[in-house]
Amino acid sequence: MNDTIRLLQNHRSIRKFLTTPVERDKLDAILQSGQMASTSSNMQAYSIIGIEDAELRKQLASLCGNQIYVEQCPVFLVWCADLHRLSAVAALHGTEAQADTTEYFVIATVDTALAAQNAAIAAESLGLGVVYIGGIRNRISEVADLLQLPERVYPVFGMCLGYPDQAPVLRPRLPLAAVYHQDAYRIDSELPAVAEYDETTREYMTARSQGRTSRSWSEQMAEKMGNPSRLHMQSFLTKKGFLKR
Fold first, then answer.
1. Angle, helix 217-225 to helix 190-208, in steps of 10 degrees
2. What is the pLDDT of residue 190?
3. Per-residue CA distances from 195 to 44, 57, 190, 192 (Å)
4. Could you tell me which InterPro entries the record lists for this protein (predicted)?
């Protein structure tokens, strides 16, 4: 155990922030740390949009499902998978970018996630907190229009950033036995580990909700997996020039 591992294992989502501004030098260091994440073939297939305009923040909060902390947090970042810049770079050398493939979509999405997580860890190391906002995809076409995203750019998620004004209980994760397989995928190891985790999550949910609910992880996931969401994503992505082959 060292300071880095302690930091990583103490992560929790922060949804209530102090009004204290995030210093510009710290924000720059956080973003530059994000840039140093691993990236496929050095493509760096992402862009980050910092939302400072108050009215724009308000609109985004509404589009994200009325998540008020999107409007109130000191810093709100929109992390975008970006193949537009690479297409423009290819054109400089007389090459038509083949950016509509599924592989390039995966690369851009993974690059974005890796950079964002680097940034999140850097932020937490400076005493700040973050929460990812998947709700940016609830009304993704409207978000894309609002942010004037060109073809081959899509918002993967948002990120609220600031000094925490809460200390949530640490959310437990699945036992390692449920997610780690040696040499081959071991189906028989999954459900026993999940049963153990269900008991842990019942205790966590009871404490977090002050006794209002004790739903297990598997119950929550069964409900989620039985109700697919954001079915507009496929048509939006193809219209934006992704996933055509």
1. 100
2. 85
3. 40, 41, 9, 5
4. Flavin_OxRdtase_Frp, Nitroreductase, Nitroreductase-like
**Do 96 and 201 share a domain, yes or no?**
no
In a domain, 227, yes or no: no
The answer to whether the beta carbons of residues 114 and 39 sit under 8 Å apart is yes
Distances (CA, A) of 75 to 23, 24, 161: 10, 11, 5
Q: Pick the closest to residue 75 from 93, 98, 54, 51 (CA basis).
A: 51
Q: Which domain holds residue 144?
A: 3-168+232-239
pLDDT of residue 208: 86
Which residues are within 8 A (CB) of 228 and not within 5 positions of it... i.e. 6 or more apart?
none
Are 90 and 160 in the same domain?
yes
Domain assignment present for 223: no
Q: Which of 9, 1, 19 is nearest to 124 (CA)?
A: 9
Are 105 and 197 part of one and the same domain? no
One domain for residues 12 and 93: yes
**What CATH number has the domain bearing residue 82?**
3.40.109.10
Residues in the chain where the model's pLDDT stays below 50: none
**Residue 60 exposure: Cα atoms within 13 Å on the Cβ side:** 31
| Predicted local distance difference test score (pLDDT) of residue 189 | 81
Q: Which tokens go with 138? A: 């609830």
- Total structural domains within the chain: 2
215, 205 Cβ separation under 8 angstroms: yes
Q: Is 231 helix (H, G, I), strand (E, B) or coil?
A: coil
In one-letter notation, the amino acid at residue 110 is: V
Q: Judging by DSSP bridges, how do beta strands 46-50 and 129-133 pair with one another?
A: unpaired
Establish if 219 belongs to a structural domain: no
**Per-residue pLDDT at 116:** 98
